[in-house]
Amino acid sequence: MECTDSLKALGMETARSLPGSARRLCMARTVKELGPGGQRRAERERGWSRVPIRQGPHALASGFTCLAAFATRGRTPGDAPWPNLLADIQALVDRQRQTDPPGRTTRLSTRLRAAEVRRQRSVQQGSPPDALPTVQTLTTQRNARGDYPQQVAQSQPQKNSRQPLPSSRR
């Protein structure tokens, strides 16, 4: 079956505009109409990938739509096993917060690092270290919360420099 350029462009545009499963069904119907060798021909002439072209005939034959489960792909968030992780971190860190001694800023900071937060949480809950989130997970959660551990500046001693005498050389 020979197609004109306008029919090829129409088929390609239609397939491109459809969402996942509908696009695969459209491709499968087109390939079925092309006859034997239709998959390779559709790949060569229309620039379609053969992966969805192969999935489409299965959906046509069975009558069931194959859905792409995008939500189940990828990594789960690091805090998924610990739903109250953020609240626990905040409770531990808020007890240790302080301002710098001269009082020049009102910003609160803490000296607790993620490893220390993990150790204190283990002591409080009495759970083994394997049941706790890793240091990297705790660091990521604290950074997402906007809590960056910083050392508090110590107060500087005043200089005891004497005033130069008028007779001394400069």
Q: Can you tell me about this structure?
A:
The chain is mostly helical. The protein folds into two domains: 5-70, no CATH class; 85-145, no CATH class. It is built from seven helices and no strands. The longest helix has 15 residues, at 20-34. It is elongated, with a radius of gyration of 33 Å. The termini are far apart.
Please outline what is shown here:
This protein has helices at 5-17, 20-34, 38-46, 50-62, 85-94, 114-125, 135-145.
Question: What labels would you give this structure?
Answer:
0% strand, 170 residues, mainly alpha, 7 helices
Tell me the span between the first and last alpha carbons. 102 Å
Mean of the pLDDT scores? 76
Please tally the helical runs, counting DSSP H or I stretches of 4 or more residues.
7
Domains (count): 2
Portion in strands? under 5%
Secondary structure: number of strands: 0
Structural class: mainly alpha
Radius of gyration: 33 Å
Low-confidence stretches: none
What gross morphology would you assign? elongated
Largest sheet, strands/sense/barrel: none
**Element pattern in H and E:** HHHHHHH
> What oligomeric state do these chains adopt?
single chain
Helix content: 40-55%
Fold blueprint:
Layout: H1 5-17, H2 20-34, H3 38-46, H4 50-62, H5 85-94, H6 114-125, H7 135-145
Helix pairs in contact: 1-2, 2-3, 2-4, 6-7
